[in-house]
Amino acid sequence: MPKELWKGNEAIAEAAVRAGLEAYFGYPITPQTEILEFLSRRMPELGRSFVQAESELGAINMVYGAACTGVRVMSSSSSPGVSLMMEGLSYIAGTEIPAVLVNVMRGGPGLGNIAPAQSDYNQAVRGGGHGDYPRIVLAPASVQEAIDLMGLSFDLAEKYRMITMVILDGSVGQMMEPAEMPALKEIHRKGFDWATDGAMNRERRILSSIYLNPYDEEKTNLRLLKRWKDVQASEVRYKEYFLEDAKYIVIGFGTAGRVALSAVREARAQGIKVGLLRPITVSPFPHEVLDQLTGQAEAILVTEMNMGQMLDDVLLTVRGRVPVEFYGRPGGVVPFHDEILNEIHRLTSGTLAVRTDPRESWLTRMTAAS
Amino acid sequence: MATENLVYERPEAFTEMPTHYCPGCTHGVAHRLVAEVLEEMGVVNKTIGVAPVGCAVFAYNYFDTDFVEAPHGRAPAMATGIKRVLPDRVVFTYQGDGDLASIGMGEIVHAAARGENITVIFINNANYGMTGGQMAPTTLPGMKTTSSPNGRDVETQGYPIKMSEMLSTLEGTGYCVRRSLHDPKNIRLAKKAIRTAFETQVRGLGFAMVELLSTCPTNWGMTPVNSLKFVEEHMIPAFPLGDYKISDAIKQIKI
Ligand SMILES: Cc1ncc(C[n+]2csc(CCOP(=O)(O)OP(=O)(O)O)c2C)c(N)n1
Ligand code: SF4
Ligand SMILES: [Mg+2]
User: What are the structural domains, with CATH classification, of chain A?
Assistant: First the structure.
């Protein structure tokens, strides 16, 4: 298919449709409302289901119901709305059924603002809902990547009977970029052997997240972890830029990674041996490649549009072997590439020490600058 | 010598699992009525039930149909999700008064407003049975519960919510009636209403709900017999039985 100009949110919606989305349930919230609006037109056109729910609680539980029947179903929201969906996510995880949720993140906490942010990394990656459950989290950095990841998100959700979240910030959702859409696939229901779609010619099925007996719940928890180990072994995805000979490693996901790439290119032009690792699956996190890169690195810079959330995953892997520095712009502020270039210059100064919490010196620099 | 007549047997739509309900609790009666109706309509193998959080949380153990278990109050949203992608299946929720009229108020009102083609069986027993008898939105004024130990004081704890009356005001509601399970005659009427509520669904005539006044002998601290009397003497005056909404199309249904 030829490239067309797509707005991020609408591209996500259409890509989901092309991947076989049968039902969408959502509630308006900036900066993702175009997904809902687009699908309110597109889904009925194709004879598929669309409901504007009464709230995000309603929306995620409609997703839960439809997911129990084994069809491809999704919702989308932005930070405050995703908080409301946490109940449903936990139940979906406990029931071990596939569902896709897109979070176009904005500045927070609370009502915050509608500017692009990456402040929900922890909520997405480490849980958010109650109970012990893993989930897959994908983080696109461009409209094309968002399109590609929508198809993947459904495949992974079904393969591992797990929630797949796609997290992006408002700027990817709102920007227009040339991108290529996959062809519209015909829907063929897969007839999963767990789906509650009416017990015609078979034994009845029950889907629930209840395990009254603690030993059964424990078994379930362990089953989830075992499945997660498979996800970790097979599904890690990331992009590497200029890393072969890099002595300095920059790590950033989504838009922060994209801005960092411009800075890295400029630093390369200045002769600095710096490269970028951009995780695409932030969960499972690319620990292994980072571990290898740590071996060749003199210093590492983590850059995020939050107060340092992925930073913890980096620290966990690096384990104090080399200095890790942090540069973040929280609250809905998008960093300029020259800010990150400055940080790369700091990395090369050779005066950095290994610190327990790299946020501390960053905070000092931030407060001094303002 | 008198020949033996079979007067009572397990409906086919029931599993062989013994119920966990307390003796004298009318949850069991309501279950049986639903099972009989599903069987009589021949829809057991295309029904998907949605269980609530409440004493009926294990409803899925008793009905021989596909079942899912909803978060507290969210059954109408789950049922919406199921029915929208499988419109030719029969989808019902079975919910208590805490589930439906308190935490799930948003979900039930909007499912009704959208005219979702689902059937809702609403068990009003004036308290939160499962968690040990706390005050529910349906608790009668002056009624003692574990969280209104001096009796529900309407000045500070508000008034009972009448769901059937409320939902009957919505255009999307096709069928909405209140029945009681306190004696055989009313149980028969309740069954007829449940049948109509499912017929409403299979004919695509909109949202259908049957509210059933029920007992909770355990938390009311009464014998089963006194509980039935309590329903008759105290609940019915507060929650009058009746047909709150029957759309013209549904009135034509002959059962
Ligand atoms: C989100 C959430 N809040 C609270 C509970 C605890 N809880 C379980 S059952 C219940 C009350 C159920 O009462 P009702 O719906 O009237 O059903 P009954 O047991 O009376 O049939 C509550 C509050 C829960 N499981 N989930
Ligand atoms: S606690 Fe009340 S509602 Fe629950 S099973 Fe016992 S009698 Fe029935
Ligand atoms: Mg109750």
Answer: 4-234 (3.40.50.970), 238-369 (3.40.50.920)
